[in-house]
Amino acid sequence: MLHGYGQLARYFLRNFEGLHDNNLIVAPEALSRFYLDDAHSRVGATWMTREDRENEILDQITHLDTLTAHVAGHCAPNVPISALGFSQGVATLCRWSVLGKTRIERLVLWGGSMPTDLAAPALKMKWANTKVDLVHGDQDPLVNELSLARNEAQLRDAQVPCSIHKFGGGHALDNLLLRRIITA
User: Fold this and answer.
1) Which of 22, 88, 126, 131 could pair with 5 in a Cys bridge, judged by C-beta atoms 3.0 to 4.6 Å apart?
2) Partners of 132 in the beta sheet?
3) Which domains are present in the chain?
């Protein structure tokens, strides 16, 4: 479960309380932390910035592949891996699933924009047998209907089918829909 910009994994994990039955939920934290306020009292994390972008993307992918291999080593063989990206975590999840080594069976792209730097043939090849869910809050001020339409078009161009889920809310995880998607 990849959190959004300015979030910390320990707080993001609160959204998944009560969903641990038959699921091992892991929420890695983005590698770059920063202060969220002038008083330096609140800390957040970001997956990347434009500074040294290519190396940050490589660092993320390597980190997520290594972490997943470690966790999978403590699970039964061939346990299916599902991953959710929220907000900025959507782009990170998309890049990791296409450019990394980890085989992800289900992607939940929630309230974020897919990166445009992933070519349709790469998406088609890597996501041919992946279940993809696009989730969008109908009152999201950061990721609007146009962003959702762009995500849909990018998947359509890559010939990757997806399920679309909308909920009455903003730029946040909706607990009822989250529970329905995770337990499906």
Assistant:
1) 88
2) 107
3) 53-183 (3.40.50.1820)
| Alpha carbon distance 10, 100 (integer Å) | 24
- Residue 179's nearest CA partner among 149, 135, 143 is 135
- In this prediction the pTM is 0.94
Per-residue burial over 126-146, b = 16 or more CB atoms within 10 Å of its CB, e = otherwise? bbeebbbbbbbbeebeebeee
pLDDT string in tens for the chain (184-residue length): 999 999 999 999 999 988 877 888 999 999 999 999 999 999 999 999 889 999 999 999 999 999 999 999 999 888 999 999 999 999 999 999 999 999 999 999 999 999 999 999 999 999 999 999 999 999 999 998 999 999 999 999 999 999 999 999 999 999 999 999 988 7
- Could you say which DSSP state residue 47 is in? S
